[in-house]
Each structure stands twice: as C-alpha cells, then as structure tokens.
Specification:
The chain is of the alpha+beta class and 258 residues long. The protein is built from seven helices and twelve strands. The strands form three sheets. The chain has a five-stranded antiparallel sheet. Strands 2-3-5-6-10 form a five-stranded antiparallel sheet, with helices on one face. This is PPM-type phosphatase domain-containing protein.
Length: 258
C-alpha cells in the first residue's frame, strides 16, 4: 500500500506558482501502482506555469491511457522507460512550438513510478528538481542537479554547503523546452523500497533547509502516514519562508509498504 501527501505554495514573494505536481494511483491484477511528479517552471523564461502544467497534463495522460496498454501487452520496465521517454520528447517539441514571439518556455521534471506488479521503481529526471530517499538516520539525494552549481559540485570546484548560497544556483543546464530540440533525460530503475520515504521537491523547498532537517521531519518512522507527511511538509515549508525563501515551494512524499 501507499501513503502519500503533498504541499505547494507560491511562497512569500511570487504572485504566481509556476510549480506543478501530480500523484496518480492505479491497480493491475490486484497490484498497486503509483505515479508522482513535480515540475518547476523556469522563472527566468516566459509562462513557466504554462510549461509545467503542460508537462504534468501530458504525463498524466500517458499514465492513464498508455500505461495500462503497456502492462496488458506484457511490456517490461525497459519498454515502459522507452515509452515515457518518447512522451517526454514529444512534450519537449510541443512546448517549443508554443514558444512563439520570442517567448521561450521551459520546466524541470522529476517523476517516480512505483509498479508493484512489475516490482519496479522508475525515476525520470531533468533539471534541478530533486528526488530524495529518506531513511531514519540519513537522506540520500538520488537525482543529479542539471545546473551550473551542480556540475561544479561534481567537479569538486565548490562544496554542497557553499552552493546553497551561490547566486548562480537558479541557472539550470537541462530542462524540458527552452528551445532545444534534443534533450537527454536521466532514468533510474530499482526495486521499490519499503524502508524509506521518497521525496520529490522543487529547489525552493530544499534551498533554505538541510538534508538533516529534512531527515529529522520526514523519516519513515516519523512520517509514517499521510497526515504526518502533510504536517511535516508544511512545517518545512514554513521554515523555508521564515528563512526568506523567495521562490515557489513544492514537495510531495510517498511511502510504500508491501
């Protein structure tokens, strides 16, 4: 079974929330499936909220109308990954076609698909929206930030702590849209984990708080049902705003138990 919750706000400064999210569930042959995603429309471009909502709408349609046929046809995890990849490339082209009159749109995208029938968890990712796996004593960043500071962290030029205060932290290097025709998306496949809370969040959620703070509030022993997850996410969002976060703030949490 799944426990899940989410929270989102435009924050203390922005008048428009350019983030978008979805959590969808289904069943196949008695087994549960969950598909969750967060998009963060790129604030420096036009109509970020339009790009993020477009992506969420399209992948929601994929899950509701394409995914069932994939399961019925006997498709495995790699076939499903290829199908989602085709959909993301199609969305990329659609967003670029909408980018007219010099208005370029773009958005990040990070998703989690847990299919207990196939015993598979699949992560798809582009941009700097993050997916964490939170355990009782640690929090692991699973995705790789496609950003200027993210690349410098991986090259050892700056530390993760100093990156939190770097003025370039909003400069992303890969996304959906923004005029590029060919995009590369990250995919990860693994077994669904029952000893962790999966957390997907926009950069506005995690910029003012530490992994230790996230772990302390959202660990599986503490955030063990949907109500506690909701309370934990809202508490962390209040910390963000108290610490002068200016961006939109969005996060969702999922816990799976067999």
């Amino acid at each position: 079974m799944f426990e899940y919750s989410y929270a989102t706000t435009e924050g203390a400064v922005r008048k428009v929330n350019q983030d978008a999210l979805m959590i969808k569930t289904a069943r196949y042959k008695g087994r549960e499936i969950l598909f969750a995603a967060v998009c963060d429309g790129i604030g420096g471009l036009a109509d970020g909220e339009k790009a993020s909502s477009c992506v969420i709408g399209s992948v929601s349609d994929w899950f509701e109308n394409v995914y069932p046929s994939l399961l019925r046809s006997g498709s495995g995890a790699l076939d499903i990954r290829s199908s989602l990849d085709r959909r993301l490339h199609s969305i990329n082209n659609d967003i670029n076609k909408e980018s007219v009159n010099g208005k370029v749109m773009g958005t990040t995208f990070t998703s989690l698909l847990i299919d207990t029938y196939l015993d598979t968890a699949m992560i798809a990712h582009v941009g700097d929206t993050r997916l964490y796996k939170i355990y009782d004593h640690t929090a692991e960043v699973v995705t790789m930030d496609h950003s200027v500071v993210g690349e410098e962290i991986r090259r050892g030029i700056i530390t993760e702590e100093s990156a939190r205060f770097d003025k370039r932290q909003n400069q992303i290097t890969n996304c959906i849209g923004a005029g590029a025709r060919d995009r590369m998306y990250d995919y990860m496949l693994h077994k669904p984990e029952t000893e962790c809370v999966y957390l997907i969040c926009s950069d506005g959620f995690r910029r003012q708080i530490t992994k230790e703070e996230i772990c302390g509030i959202m660990s599986p022993s503490r955030a063990d049902d949907s109500e506690k997850m909701k309370a934990g996410l809202e508490y962390l969002m209040r910390l963000d705003i108290e610490r002068s976060e200016e961006d939109n703030i969005t996060a969702l949490a999922v816990k799976y138990s067999d």
